[in-house]
Amino acid sequence: MRKYKQLLLANKAWANELTDENPKFFQRQVVGQRPDFLWIGCSDSRVSPEQMTMTPPGGMFIHRNVANLVNDGDLNLLSALQYAVLVLEVRHVIICGHYGCGGIAATLDGNTDGAVDQWLAGARHVLSAHQDEVMGQQSSEERVNRLVEVNVRDQLVRLARTETVQTAWARGQDLFLHGWVYDIRDGHIKPLVEIDSTTLLDTVPRPDRVLMRSGPEKSPEDL
After folding, report:
1. CA distance linking residue 62 with residue 83, whole number of Å
2. In which region does residue 212 sit, left (phi positive, over 0), alpha (psi from -120 to 50) or beta (all else)?
3. Is 175 exposed, middle or buried (0-12, 13-18, 19+ CB in 10 A)?
């Protein structure tokens, strides 16, 4: 069977399973959405926000792009942000990067051209700002993963400075920004930084350095 047909069959099975559990499930979806979260993540096919957080349909508004960047000229992201924050009034906006990110690795390698090269300009700014720390890591894997982390931090600060976020805070809206990184090696999410309306954006610290693991899996307390 062709792979795209498997997607259609899987969709039928998924819809049937939901309606078996709750016959009115899709009727309630038609009424509208009221998600608590806006997720800004990477387009990488290994990173599935709803699946890895077990969020049901309607619980998360999602925007994804290469290397989870917040670019001033990205009308797609800015539109999603405006709608999610000012209309849907989500309380939490999450920027989630992931270790082993291809966009971040390409930023370090520098062998890009065309649209990808233009898009990654934002990531190159992050590399320039944290050059000594990133390049001081011992291995290429560590350099990629450290740039992943500081990129999440810098993109979160850029997000906090957007007109939409500043407007929400000015009108007293409860809005919290979270910077996370997803570890594709074990499926766990690592919180890195949080920002709210009281945070001094010029003093947001860099996240803790990446911990490269070997041997038995470590507990969340170890991370």
Report:
1. 11
2. beta
3. buried
Q: Are strands 176-183 and 92-98 parallel, antiparallel or unpaired?
A: parallel
Q: For 43-100, where are the E strands, in sequence order?
A: 60-65, 92-98
- Residue 216's pLDDT band (boundaries 50, 70, 90)? very low
| 160-190 pLDDT tens trace | 999 999 999 999 999 999 999 999 999 999 9
Report the alpha-carbon distance of residue 50 to residue 57 in Å, rounded. 8
Among the ranges given (4-8, 55-59, 159-163, 187-191), the one the predictor scored with the smallest mean pLDDT: 4-8
Residue 181 to residue 190: CA distance in whole angstroms: 5
φ, ψ for residue 115, nearest 5 deg? -65, -40
Strand-pairing partners, residue 194, are: 178
In this structure, the strands spanning 176-183 and 188-195 are antiparallel
> Is residue 52 very low, low, confident or very high in pLDDT (cuts 50, 70, 90)?
very high
Strands (E), 36-155: 37-42, 60-65, 92-98
How many angstroms separate the CA atoms of 134 and 153, rounded? 14
Token readout for 212 is 């490269």
* Active-site residue set: 42, 44, 46, 98, 101
* Element of type H or E holding 115: helix 114-119
Burial tier of 65 (Cβ tally within 10 Å: 0-12, 13-18, 19+): middle
pTM of the predicted protein model: 0.87
